[in-house]
Design goal:
The chain has a single domain, classed as Growth Hormone, Chain: A (Up-down Bundle). The longest helix has 30 residues. The protein is mainly α and 417 residues long. Helix 5 packs antiparallel against helix 16, helix 15 runs antiparallel to helix 16 and helix 17 crosses helix 18.
């Protein structure tokens, strides 16, 4: 936290407001993680329908990512933060207003816009504000809003459903989003810094995706997103189908606690040892979490799976954002963040309906086994394709070499990008 002491009062105020708004935003969304699948189940939906409704959240993410990424670069980060918190404040009322599967899908798609906007704006603004030499540390600390929110939200959501019902739950989720909106209104967002004009600055979305420094991380995020979607959609239902005394809210709370603790250390450590080592570690943690869920038959194994999943998510998302910040100019940072995280969105979108079908055929347990195989493929891809060739990729992924695609190391002609 020493880095914060070097900032002026205005910058510290902005970061504090941003952190608080992020905490409220993620608490709002995560209060529905263990409860919304149960709500959809209670109104008579099948496993596949639950997967489709939950997965449609990512459709809203995917459809809005290009727009919010471009908007963040052209109009500033604050406007997309306002959009994200506004949607988070409105969408929960939609769940309460209908019990139709079709309408719930539409509400879920609309709700997905919130993460696309808020996540892109938050990451881009924090990166803009953070000095390059302490970028990993600052992003790591500021990303703590996510696991804290993910710890508070599920526990609070599960408690409210048990004691007061779904109506109060949806009202609370909306109120948290609204208070986050009030906080973002007070943030002072500096204009996007623009460096010397280059061909790279004018690249379109598909041109950016085609570049290897963006394409491989995006595919890795897609594969991990498949597993993430499976866990977030089906773990509460899996637990309910077993005789194990361990509820879904506790699973997500334990995962968030693990995510919080790992983020305290990895951000600063990555400034010293590089991003690759910690991304490798995070994907391995996801593989381990899914193997544990596949074999889980007791509360302690579910707890270990939650800890591994939290360590994986807590490391992967902050380190992937930091690595993409290292590889991007300020004027295209919003688009690059949007593309990379869109890989995760697509994985989540595919995961719920696809793995829902698998769960119908083989059960929840074996579905997590399939997820472990998919995530292992992501690990192999990152180990072998994260840099310019196999040797450099292995060295970077194991923390033995710097990122060849970071702007300070990138020495290629513009026509090669």
């Amino acid at each position: 936290m020493k880095a914060f002491n070097t900032f002026d009062a205005q910058l510290r105020r902005n970061l504090l407001i941003l952190f608080t708004a992020g905490l409220l935003f993620w608490s709002s969304l995560s209060s529905l993680l263990p409860t919304l699948p149960l709500y959809i189940n209670d109104i008579g939906a099948s496993k596949q329908e639950i997967g489709i409704v939950m997965g449609s959240f990512a459709i809203g993410l995917l459809l809005s990512r290009p727009m919010v990424g471009r908007l963040a670069d052209e109009r500033g980060r604050k406007i997309v933060l306002l959009l994200g918190t506004l949607v988070a404040a409105i969408a929960p009322f939609g769940y309460f207003a209908t019990r139709s599967i079709g309408l719930l899908i539409l509400v879920r798609i609309f709700h997905g816009i919130s993460i696309a906007a808020f996540g892109t704006g938050y990451s881009a603004l924090v990166t803009d504000l953070a000095p390059a030499k302490t970028r990993g540390e600052i992003i790591g600390y500021m990303s703590l809003a996510t696991p804290i929110g993910l710890a508070i939200g599920p526990a609070l959501g599960g408690y409210l459903v048990a004691t007061s019902g779904y109506g109060i739950l949806f009202l609370l989720s909306a109120e948290l989003g609204f208070v986050a909106l009030l906080g973002i209104v007070q943030v002072t967002s500096p204009p996007v810094q623009r460096q010397e004009q280059t061909q790279k600055e004018d690249r379109k979305f598909w041109q950016i995706f085609a570049s290897p420094q963006v394409r491989v991380p995006t595919i890795v995020m897609l594969l991990v997103g498949l597993s993430l979607g499976a866990v977030h959609t089906f773990v509460a239902l899996f637990l309910k189908s077993t005789d194990v005394d361990f509820n879904g809210g506790l699973f997500f709370t334990a995962a968030a606690f693990s995510s919080f603790n790992i983020r305290i250390f990895v951000g600063k450590a990555s400034d010293r040892f590089g991003r690759g080592l910690f991304i490798t570690f995070s994907i391995f943690c996801y593989v381990l979490a899914l193997i544990l869920l596949w074999q889980a038959n007791s509360a302690i194994v579910f707890l270990l799976a939650a800890i591994a999943e939290g360590a994986g998510s807590g490391t992967l998302f902050s380190m992937m954002i930091t690595m993409m910040a290292d590889r991007s100019l300020p004027q295209e940072r919003g688009k690059i963040f949007a593309i990379c995280v869109a890989g995760l969105d697509l994985g989540v979108a595919i995961a719920a309906p696809l793995l829902g079908i698998i769960a119908e055929q083989v059960g929840y347990r074996d579905m997590f086994g399939y997820g472990a195989v998919i995530t292992f493929l992501a690990l192999i891809l990152f180990l072998t394709r994260s840099s310019k060739n196999l040797s450099n990729s292995l060295r970077f992924a194991l923390g033995l070499a710097s990122d060849a695609y970071a702007l300070k190391n990138l020495k290629v002609r513009s026509d090669e990008i």
